Amino acid sequence: MKIFNVCGARPNFMKIAPLMRAYANHDEIQPFLVHTGQHYDERMNKWFFDELEIPTPDVNLGVGSGSHAVQTAQIMTRFEELMLVQKPEAVLVVGDVNSTVACALVATKLGTPVIHVEAGLRSFDRAMPEEINRVVTDTLSDLLFVTEQSGLENLRREGVPDERVHFVGNVMIDTLLRFKAKAAESLVLETLKLTRKGYTTVTLHRPSNVDDDVVFGRILDAFEEIQSDMPMIFPMHPRTRSNLSRGPLGGRIEAMRNLRIIEPLGYLDFLHLTSQAACVLTDSGGIQEETTILGVPCLTLRENTERPVTLTDGTNQLVGSDPEKILTAFRQVVGQKPLTQRPELWDGSAADRIVKIIHEWGVRSIRPESASVGV
Ligand code: UD1
Fold first, then answer.
1. What is the 3 state secondary structure string of 227-278?
2. Which pLDDT score is estimated for 54?
3. What sign has the CA pseudo-torsion 78, 80, 86, 88?
């Protein structure tokens, strides 16, 4: 059973890594790794393959950046050509980026089953490109793997038949648990001259925050105050950096002595930087989950989250972009040890569960003839 496994952007790499490892226990599955090339900078791409020990992709479609339509269309065109030559029996996609939806669409139109890992998450905010990608990908998928209870409820409400849906835990947390000890050896704190719990980690890259100077400016109002309390370490996404270089806010950031902009970090350094922070301020999806497991307070600079278990069980709080709300929450959480519980099945074995289910499902639905001979 030849399965295409698609990755394209940074948050895909931590999800695909444990799956590629788990396939090793199933000889009947031939995994084929396709990189769309959506992310291509060394720091957004190659470093993750090296650190997370992901095999070199069998193919890189080399798509790169573009508007949503251009990027999605180019992935589709190149992925279709590859599908027609390689003829996989299923296509597995992860997460909610443009590569996810583009490849799911191509596969479905060619009549090839789609497997979605991290299905069912919903922010109910259609202004968010990822929400469109999630809804469309789930509609097209034949096998849906869910990370939290909300995903089961969302898919049921949308009419996805129960037998397609499996609650398996979180592959991103598989990666975190596997690499946590190695990340603890990182020298990033020494290099940046930081002390444990004496700084905050910041990430911001969502268009709703960084493409709008008014919104970004309000966030910076809060940062001005926070950085006077403790250093803020901001590994900056290239999209945020290029917005700042073009817009009026670059000067304000430069004037904040304790807001330290650095290049994007590799996985291990970033994990260590996050795990030792007093607090994390972010608009990322995955970091809400990682801080929940690390027990580090997380302030999410968004109005909603598609990962509500991080609010109920984890360390996450939604603070939006209102400076007063951000500051109040920051002052409340810093120095406190949050009460958390590990979300159900976030135990490091999600990828093993997924691959086992794919194997059984493949035997039943893709290769029914082999089921009768006991393969
Ligand atoms: C994408 C995902 C987002 C995810 C994020 C993580 C979509 C719709 N969005 O957003 O869900 O949270 O990845 O990073 O798929 N760029 C570079 N080098 C790179 C990649 C991007 O310089 O290696 C710059 C380019 O200017 C590019 C911009 O970043 O135009 C945006 O890249 P893109 O892949 O379109 O979306 P992200 O904002 O990275």
1. HHHCCEEEECCHHHHHHHHHCCCHHHHHHCCCEEEECCCCHHHHHHHHHCCC
2. 98
3. positive
**Domains located in the chain, CATH noted:** 2-169+346-371 (3.40.50.2000), 181-333 (3.40.50.2000)
Both tokens assigned to 351: 């990828």
Average pLDDT over residues 318-329: 98
Q: How far apart are CA 357 and CA 359, in angstroms?
A: 5
CA distance 171 to 347: 9
| 68-95 confidence digits (pLDDT tens) | 999 999 999 999 999 999 999 999 999 9
- Helix H or strand E segment including 78: helix 68-86
Please compute the mean of the pLDDT values over residues 196-220 and round it to a whole number.
Answer: 97
Q: Is the pLDDT of residue 127 over 90?
A: yes
> Facing residues of 34 across strands?
6, 59
Which whole-number Å values give the CA distances from 369 to 359, 364, 375, in the listed order? Answer: 14, 8, 9
The total of other beta-carbon atoms located within 10 Å of residue 307's CB is 24
Atom 30 in ligand 1: residue holding the nearest Cα: 65
Q: What is the position in ligand 1's atom list of the atom closest to the CA of 71?
A: 35
From the CA of 38, give the closest atom in ligand 1: 34
Question: 249 exposed, middle or buried (CB, 10 Å; 0-12, 13-18, 19+)?
Answer: middle
Q: Which of 198-207, 213-222, 336-345 has the lowest mean pLDDT?
A: 336-345
- Please tell me the predicted confidence (pLDDT) of residue 368: 66
Strand partners, 281: 202, 299
Residue nearest (by alpha carbon) to ligand 1 atom 28 = 239
Instruction: Give the C-alpha separation, 93 to 3, whole Å.
Output: 10
pLDDT in tens, 144-170: 999 999 999 999 999 999 999 999 999
What pLDDT is stored for residue 68 in this prediction? 98
Q: Which amino acid does the sequence have at 203?
A: T
Q: How many CB atoms lie within 10 A of CB 195?
A: 11
- Tokens, residue 184: 């603890």
Q: Is 98 helix (H, G, I), strand (E, B) or coil?
A: helix
Measured from CB, residues less than 6 Å from any atom of ligand 1 are: 9-11, 38-41, 44-45, 65, 71, 97-98, 129-130, 205, 237-239, 242
